């Protein structure tokens, strides 16, 4: 059984990279596109640290599906945002979430990767549902929403 995992998804957004970056680097904007907000519309959300970029922090606590955890932006450039993700529930784990934004004219190639070490709980759970199947569909849904939000923002200016 693997000791680590990496799930990667990508898309082309018909909007400049700065529009996509603004949605990724500010956790308050994630409500517009994050697939996990659907898991519990009533979950408690706390924002702290910087408003956006390095040091921005987001914590949540929700129902069984949403769990509890926090994220912090650890590095942010115009073309990359790195996030430390820690779950407390349903089982403790840590991951790195990376968004690579590559400008291609007026479009942006977005590559979203979630990676980390497999904890014992994750290894057991992955026997039923591998990480690729667990995260992949949600990441695809998130990219569809991110694309729609960034393209809508690009049309308004």
TrEMBL record:
CDD domains: SRPBCC_1 (cd07818). It holds the Pfam family Polyketide_cyc2. Gene3D superfamilies: 3.30.530.20. InterPro entries: Polyketide_cyclase/dehydratase, START-like_dom_sf. This is SRPBCC family protein. The lineage of its organism: Bacteria, Bacillati, Actinomycetota, Actinomycetes, Micrococcales.
């Amino acid at each position: 059984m693997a000791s680590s995992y990496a799930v990667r998804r990508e898309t082309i957004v018909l909007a400049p990279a700065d529009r996509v970056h603004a949605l990724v680097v500010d956790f308050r904007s994630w409500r517009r596109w994050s697939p996990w907000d659907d898991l519990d519309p009533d979950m408690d959300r706390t924002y702290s640290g910087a408003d956006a970029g390095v040091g921005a922090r987001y914590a949540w606590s929700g129902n069984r599906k949403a769990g509890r955890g926090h994220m912090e932006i650890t590095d942010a450039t115009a073309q990359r945002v790195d996030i430390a993700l820690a779950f407390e529930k349903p089982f403790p784990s840590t991951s790195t979430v990376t968004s690579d934004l590559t400008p291609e004219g007026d479009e942006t190639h977005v590559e979203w990767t979630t990676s980390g070490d497999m904890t014992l709980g994750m290894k057991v759970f992955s026997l039923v549902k591998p990480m690729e199947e667990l995260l992949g569909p949600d990441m695809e849904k998130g990219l569809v929403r991110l694309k729609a939000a960034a393209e809508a923002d690009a049309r308004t200016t």
